[in-house]
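Task 17 of the worksheet. Students: predict the tertiary structure of the chain below and write it out as structure tokens. Keep your answer in the requested format; marks are given for formatting as well as content.
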Amino acid sequence: MSEKLSSNATQKPVPQSLSYPFLRSEFLQALEDSLSACVTTGWLPLHIEYHDARQQRTLPLYLKEHSMGEYVFDYAWANAYHQHGISYYPKLVSAVPFTPSVGPRLTGSPTNSDTIGTEILTQICSHADIHNASSWHLLFPDSATIAVFNMPHLLHRTGVQYHWYNRDYAHFDDYLTRMTSRKRKMVRRERKAVSAQNIVVSMELGDAISPSVWKLFYQLYERTYAKRNGSHGYLTEAFFQQISGSMSNQIAMAVARVNNEPVASALYFYDDACLYGRYWGSLGDYDCLHFELCYYSGIEFAIDKGLRRFDAGAQGEHKIVRGFEPIETTSVHWIRHDKFRKAIRRFTEQEHLHIQDYITQAKSLLPYK
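Model answer:
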């Protein structure tokens, strides 16, 4: 178990008053305190601390014996290692556990220093030597973090997510006017289907979310995982209890009620620029309720708050016809084994071309005029 992350390592961008939520010490510490990300779940914390002339920086780092909870899928790489009699695990991962959200991965203010990435990577390689790790993987970094680790021997891999962008909309109907008539009618029909079931949806913020609603949310979270693949969710109930207090100023929850009783909910985080949709669940199969709680209520909230972007989570091509644009994501990889590094480089280069073609095709399906 790592030492507690100090609060002065929390990213505090200027002039924003609300920082990227998933790199806050409160979020990362809750993952460890709640035993959601710890050695017993396969996430041994080895966080890197780096001090430059102006500030302390922290890079989340975990030693892992599996690839679960990462959302940048490298199972084929692990299988190739296994087929050649070489161990792929353990490996090192710099990521926010269970959170496929693009954002900073290194705390502190942006810097133009060319040495920080090299010096931090030296520390990472030292951990790799100590623990006999095959590789290091930096997942869902933003462009500023990628620039810090812009080194020719590191591999870049691309992926796709779907994000909604606020084009200075005054209200939800203002957003709908940008859509083609057919897709505009589809959205309105789906929202009406929810209200026709006597469902009332409200967006509740932080401290206003009652303990009973949080309790139901966790039950629904577990229910969703059990229904999807027969397993438990990655996050424990203690995690949600902890962040409900320590991060209440950056949490929102869309709650659906029938006869004033909650029947479904969706959890969001937000900062000054972006809304992040994370988890949802429902007691029953309600027509179009997933779209309302996970997309339309989020879009409405983002417009009301003046947020520029809405990241509704990984995967989901059905987001495209509802106005979420395909964007390219990047991960950065250090591969110790020379021959596998060359093979993986060829793979990522070919994969990048396929991703670019896919994004071009996907953009043609967007519902805008």
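Marker's comment: The radius of gyration is 21 Å. Confidence is low (pLDDT under 50) at residues 1-16.
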